[in-house]
Design brief:
This protein has 172 residues and is an alpha+beta fold. The chain has 3 helices and 6 strands. Strands 3, 4, 5 and 6 form a 4-stranded antiparallel beta sheet that branches. The longest helix is centred in the first third of the chain and has 42 residues, at 2-43. The chain starts with a helix and ends with a strand.
Length: 172
């Protein structure tokens, strides 16, 4: 009997060891899942839900906006560029992605309110006229679109224009 009692404690210690190892595995799996969740939320651009802003008017995540072409429906915008003495003309098609929740800018039917349309055209024409010829280079197109978006948002209110798309571009 003395031999049996000596063997019992090692069996209990084996059970304790198995329980400790199992607990460590569970904690490790939970920790790995937590780290993976943290990384996916903060570094992949994945949805934390809702709208997130980086700055006052630059929206990283938003609902799909209303796409509205400005200027003449067929021709787009025709404007002289490069200063008052320049004989250069720009014919361009510009589409704005507008915030559909701005009821003072967008009608229920998805069109621009008349006052907003007038402001948008005026701001766009002034912006294009004041832009230097070298700024119309293809390598600077993204910066040009960002500047136009910022100019429109400063007049219409932050978050009114989600993005600017240039659909045609002819400088002559």
């Amino acid at each position: 009997m003395a031999d049996e009692e000596k063997e019992a404690p090692p069996a209990d210690s084996k059970k304790k060891l198995i329980i400790i190892v199992a607990a460590l595995v569970v904690v490790g799996v939970l920790l790995a899942a937590g780290v993976a969740f943290f990384i996916s939320q903060n570094f992949s651009g994945g949805g934390g839900g809702g709208e997130q802003y980086s700055g006052d008017t630059d929206m990283r995540f938003h609902d799909t906006g209303k796409f509205i072409k400005i200027g003449d429906p067929k021709e787009g915008i025709l404007v002289n560029v490069g200063g008052p003495r320049s004989s250069k003309f720009l014919k361009t098609g510009i589409v704005l992605e507008m915030n559909p929740n701005k009821k003072d800018i967008i009608t229920e039917a998805g069109a621009l309110q008349p006052i907003a349309e007038t402001k948008i055209l005026d701001i766009t024409m002034q912006f294009l006229r004041q832009t230097k010829l070298e700024d119309f280079d293809a390598s600077k197109q993204d910066e040009l679109k960002k500047q136009l978006k910022d100019a429109l948002n400063s007049e219409l209110g932050g978050g009114s224009v989600y993005d600017v798309y240039i659909t045609s571009f002819l400088l002559q």
